[in-house]
């Protein structure tokens, strides 16, 4: 890879002896191709970074004002993830280096266990990893904004096609036009409605993850009822029975969670079998998190498709194609990922499906360890 010339490095290290060692080691590794400044504390490092751009920060985790993970967490809180950081740890036996990488550092080195060559390699590979990370983020941003702009610009013409084809069909019906012509126009109207749904879902999908999620204590039971009430037309149309048990509270973003519940309950009704849909929403507190489930008596899913259905635009063949666009479960997956939860499905073809997802527990609700029964089931038929 091509390195910036000279590489500008900021060494944040309060021990003079260690700082001298680094200067010498970096000097050996990069000859005259580097500039190195030193800061003795986090506060001083922030001042330096305000004055000058650095290609790399080498951060000792043991500083006068903070120790260990607190040092790197404070660093990223103040500066954001805008600089590549290699951390220096005092002890090789601890997991702290790996924890530092988990929160955003590009590498870690244990003091006393490396020489100039290892240092040079860590810097080179670290900078290359950083460059790749930046390129990937840029590509993801471009793709997202492209999807957003495309969906946004398509929304208005697609809506107009849907509107005018509807009007035209009414006018033709009023003057008793040819049956076949009316039928064809009906197709145009139905396809336009389908395109409208696709554009709306795409727009929704493309903005997910743009804003930071707002975690709050959420009354999931009330939210599930709200989701069912938003689906009233669907529930009525399919003669569905939806039962919501007493549900534990969770820490979640209410605005996002309602989409998950609506998508899962909506699917449970939509993909019904021969019998009228019967859907149950339940929840248990387990292992420090809350596990919710939405189960149905519908057509079921072949296990070989379990992973595929969560991917964007993946729909299963043989299903009523007019109904969906294949983004519902991808949206659910993204929302649950953003909460650091998991979502999965259990099902057998012809025997109904159960979608499970986990969320962080609301504070103060750790004691509710028993599964919650169906004593207070609400039905929405
Ligand atoms: P959409 O419903 O728009 O097609 P989704 O992403 O919500 O998209 O679902 C992807 C596919 O997973 C659906 O096309 C359907 O085949 C299958 N699926 C989802 N939920 C269920 C369910 N409860 N029962 C049976 N199949 C389901």
Automatic annotation (TrEMBL):
Keywords: Kinase, Phosphoprotein, Transferase. The modification 4-aspartylphosphate is found at residue 60. GO terms for molecular function: phosphorelay response regulator activity; phosphorelay sensor kinase activity; protein kinase activator activity. SUPFAM superfamilies: ATPase domain of HSP90 chaperone/DNA topoisomerase II/histidine kinase, CheY-like. Residues 8-126 form the Response regulatory domain. InterPro entries: BphY/WalK/GraS-like (IPR050351), CheY-like_superfamily (IPR011006), HATPase_C_sf (IPR036890), HATPase_dom (IPR003594), His_kinase_dom (IPR005467), HisK_dim/P_dom (IPR003661), Sig_transdc_His_kin-like_C (IPR004358), Sig_transdc_resp-reg_receiver (IPR001789). Its EC number is 2.7.13.3. Residues 149-363 form the Histidine kinase domain. It catalyses: ATP + protein L-histidine = ADP + protein N-phospho-L-histidine. One of its GO terms (biological process) is osmosensory signaling via phosphorelay pathway. It is an enzyme of class 2 (transferase). It holds the Pfam family HATPase_c. It comes from the Bacteria. This is histidine kinase. It comes from Pelagicoccus mobilis.
């Amino acid at each position: 890879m091509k390195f910036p010339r000279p590489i500008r490095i900021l060494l944040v290290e309060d021990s003079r002896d260690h700082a001298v060692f680094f200067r010498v080691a970096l000097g050996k590794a990069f000859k005259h191709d580097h500039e190195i400044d030193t800061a003795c504390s986090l506060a001083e490092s922030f001042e330096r970074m305000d004055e000058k751009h650095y290609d790399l920060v080498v951060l000792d985790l043991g500083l006068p004002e903070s120790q260990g993970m607190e040092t790197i967490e404070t660093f990223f809180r103040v500066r954001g993830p805008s600089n590549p950081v290699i951390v220096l740890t005092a002890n090789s036996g601890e997991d702290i280096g790996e924890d530092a990488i988990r929160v955003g550092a590009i590498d870690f080195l244990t003091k006393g266990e490396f020489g100039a060559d290892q240092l040079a390699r860590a810097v080179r590979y670290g900078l290359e990893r950083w460059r790749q990370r930046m390129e990937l983020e840029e590509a993801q941003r471009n793709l997202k904004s492209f999807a957003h702009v495309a969906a946004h610009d398509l929304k208005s013409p697609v809506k107009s096609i849907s509107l005018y084809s509807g009007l035209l069909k009414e006018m033709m019906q009023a003057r008793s036009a040819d049956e076949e012509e009316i039928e064809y126009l009906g197709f145009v109207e139905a396809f336009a409605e389908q395109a409208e749904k696709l554009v709306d879902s795409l727009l929704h999908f493309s903005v997910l993850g743009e804003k930071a999620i707002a975690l709050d204590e959420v009354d999931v039971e009330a939210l599930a009822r709200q989701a069912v009430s938003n689906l009233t037309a669907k529930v009525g149309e399919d003669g569905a029975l939806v039962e919501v048990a007493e549900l534990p509270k969770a820490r979640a973003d209410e605005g996002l969670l309602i989409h998950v519940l609506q998508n899962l309950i909506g699917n449970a009704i939509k993909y019904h079998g021969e019998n009228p849909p019967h859907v149950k929403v339940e929840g248990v507190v387990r292992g420090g998190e809350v596990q919710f489930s939405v189960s149905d008596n519908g057509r079921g899913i072949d296990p070989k498709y379990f992973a595929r259905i969560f991917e964007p635009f993946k729909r299963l063949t043989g299903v009523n194609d007019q109904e969906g666009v294949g983004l519902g479960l991808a949206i659910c997956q993204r929302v649950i990922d953003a909460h650091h939860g998991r979502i999965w499905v259990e099902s057998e073809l012809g025997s109904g499906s159960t979608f499970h997802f986990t969320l962080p527990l609301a504070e103060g609700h750790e004691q509710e360890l028993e599964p919650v029964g169906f004593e207070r089931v609400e039905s929405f038929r």
